Amino acid sequence: MRIDVVTIFPELFPGPLGVGVLGRARERGLVDLAVWDLRAYTADRHRSVDDAPYGGGAGMVMKVEPFVRAMEAVRAVHPATHPVVLLPSPQGAVFTQARARAYASAPHLVLLCGRYEGVDDRVAPLAGAEEVSIGDYVLTGGELAAMVIIEAVVRLRPGVVGDDASVAGDSFSAGLLDFPQYTRPVEFRGLAVPDVLLSGHHEAIRRWRRREALRRTLDRRPDLIDESALDDEARELLAELRRAAAEHRRA
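The structure corresponding to this sequence follows.
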């Protein structure tokens, strides 16, 4: 997978992307990361990438020309690819595990990092970019958001994570949060590992994990539960959890 990042702070990269699973993926040639300095695509001697907004207002807006020129340079180096171009922005569609999975199937990803009060609204259509948001909050720039997107996407690529089953069972992958996880010791400061996980009974463990994933999702993110997508066992477990919660409220 080829990933290009356009930014005014190229020194921020690879940063967290250079260590751990992603760092090893780059070393093994599974991911090729290139960083482009947006200031190299300015046309004035001050290498200006921003200007005052039309209509007035506080702050500065990043200019359209450098982004478009940078995008043209990226396409010139890789004329045969049709990259997915992303512009991290609070105004974008929410970045989800489903989106990460879709982007992971692309051979080429480009991320355009904005700063200041935002980016000229002509950048997205002229660069062929889709705006995407990592959450309902504001950062000072798109670089950290770009790193989050890159990590979420790259770890879904074949061979990047050693155990593909661990990726398949991630939170959100099945539409639910993950079940609780435990390791040694069996008991620590009065908190013990649930007995079922020590039982060696694989079917009981599987059912417990599914129930706990449903319980955690129901408690913390009920908006994620799509009952039409659940199978009979999950609907049965969900009904049990709701009955137990109702009884607890009445007690």
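The CA atoms of residues 99 and 153 lie 9 Å apart.
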